[in-house]
Amino acid sequence: MAQLWGGRFTGETDRLASQFNASITFDRKLFAQDIEGSIAHVVMLAKQGILTGEEKDQIVRGLTGIREDVFEGRLSITEEYEDIHSFVEAVLTQRIGEAGKKLHTGRSRNDQVALDMRLYIRLKVLQVSDHLKGLLETILSLMENHLTTYMPGFTHLQKAQPTTLAHHLGAYFEMFKRDVLRMEDIYKRMNYCPLGSGAFAGTTYPLDRSYTAYLMGFEGPTLNSMDSVADRDYIIEFLAALSTIMMHLSRFSEEIIIWNSNEYRFVEIDDGFSTGSSIMPQKKNPDIAELVRGKTGRVYGALMSILTTMKGLPLAYNKDMQEDKEVTFDAIETVENCLILFKGMLSSMKFNEQVMERSARKGFTNATDAADYLVGKGVAFRDAHGIVGQMVLFCIEKECSIDELSLEELKRFSPSFESDIYEAVSLKTCVEKRLTIGAPGLKAMEEVIRINREFLETRDKERK
Q1: Residue 267 is inside which H or E element, if any?
Q2: Active-site annotation holder among 41, 86, 156, 253
Q3: Identical fold at 6-105 and 110-146+164-203+218-352?
Q4: Distance of alpha carbon 310 from alpha carbon 146, whole angstroms
Q5: Four-point Cα dihedral 103, 109, 113, 119, nearest 10
Q6: Architecture of domain 110-146+164-203+218-352
Q7: What contacts 207, CB < 8 A, 6 or more positions away?
Q8: Can you give the residue ranges of every domain in the chain?
Q9: What is the pLDDT of residues 81-111, one digit of tens each?
Q10: Domain 359-463, classified CATH 1.10.40.30, yes or no
Q11: 233-259 helix and 324-347 helix, angle to the nearest 10 degrees
Q12: Beta-carbon contacts of residue 92 (< 8 Å; ≥ 6 apart)
């Protein structure tokens, strides 16, 4: 196995220990970032007179060639190397000779891997944010199309008050909008460059760390070389944010699973996102929603893994920190796949609008409005609450809804009921009179949609 540190050692490393120590099987994911960081480092070294212009050009050409050959499949990253840094440096030296050995001047693998991970996570923060915005676009389009699709709202999984599908979906828009804002916050906080910190105490070479940071689009250099190589907070923050995304996806998936059941029939999931049963021919299972719900624990596990790894580490770098990569890579891939599949499932889903409305009407979701009606006629709220409760019991026995009772039947419970009660407890009225911002009324929802459309458009402009 090719190693960068053999000079100190006279004996061979145990083969199993060498394999246990190696990271090439997973840190090969950082190849593009390792090349990017190396090129920026070399350009800075030449600017500072540490390398000659000719040496810089040789190394940059060599690194660019390696990158092209790997991407085009002409060069494979093999496991004979300890890590991705060893692979790049060894292949570079094979190709350009002595100049390749100068690539590592003024840096350590500690600040090199810290940079590579930071560049990789920074990219993934942007990509996850894009996936979230794609999901938000889908949700917002559905909201625009279902402003008057009435359905029951729930508390304790019991029908509570009538709302609209747009309002219900809007709750998830707010969740995923906060996830986008978390991505933006993480990006700003992590966007500082650790390269030039050395092993942990900087270097005696006259590096221009600000210039290196500038070349790679960072806000500036990190300000403590010890923290620079020991910091994994940005990974923990990112995994915490990914866990929150998965929690939101899981809650949404749970509702879709319930809505897809025979008892609800609020939605029909497209065949492309469902599977059948090997034994029961009638089954159409919501497997994608169930898997998204299930994979949430996998992402939570990644967060707990890195938190546990980091909790007892003294400064500065420790080999334990190599454990940050596999779980993080897996969590990112899991979340990206879940967001892509969930968006596809949601955009192709059919909503059974009549079933949803009928469920709202049959679930006494307008009971609160009936009580409010009586209050408007001068009945004390506590008395009105009791009267409507008795009406609900009567309706359950009669197997009907409140608005299906005759005026004569209503007056048995209170003489305050008049013919205008039917308009007062209609689903349309119950929803439309809730006009405060954030409520399901049409005008309120139209304003929220306008605000949310502006939120997405502003971020599109910023990326461009």
Answers
A1: strand 267-268
A2: 156
A3: no
A4: 47
A5: -30
A6: Up-down Bundle (1.20)
A7: 44, 45, 48, 50, 106, 196
A8: 6-105, 110-146+164-203+218-352, 359-463
A9: 999 999 999 999 999 999 999 999 999 999 9
A10: yes
A11: 30
A12: 59, 62, 63, 66, 100, 103
Q: How many residues does the chain have?
A: 464
pLDDT band at 280 (very low <50, low <70, confident <90, very high): low
Asked if residue 316 has a cis previous peptide bond (ω within 30° of 0), the answer is yes
Token digits of residue 409: 């039947």
- Read off the amino acid at residue 461: K
Q: Of 190, 197, 213, whose CA–CA distance to 43 is shortest?
A: 213
Q: Residue 352: left (phi > 0), alpha (psi -120 to 50), or beta?
A: beta
Could you confirm whether 277 is annotated as catalytic? yes
The pLDDT tens digits for 238-270 are 999 999 999 999 999 999 999 999 999 999 999
Active-site residue among 38, 277, 278, 348?
Answer: 277
156 belongs to the catalytic site? yes
How far apart CA 388 and CA 41 sit, in angstroms, is 75
Q: Is the dihedral of CA 403, 405, 409, 412 positive or negative?
A: negative
The string of pLDDT tens digits covering residues 112-170 is 999 999 999 999 999 999 999 999 999 999 999 999 999 999 999 999 999 999 999 99
The pLDDT of 390-404, averaged and rounded, is: 92
Q: What top-level class would CATH report for the domain 6-105?
A: mainly alpha
| Contact yes or no for 92/59 (Cβ under 8 A) | yes
| Contact indicator for 127, 336 with CB cutoff of 8 Å | yes
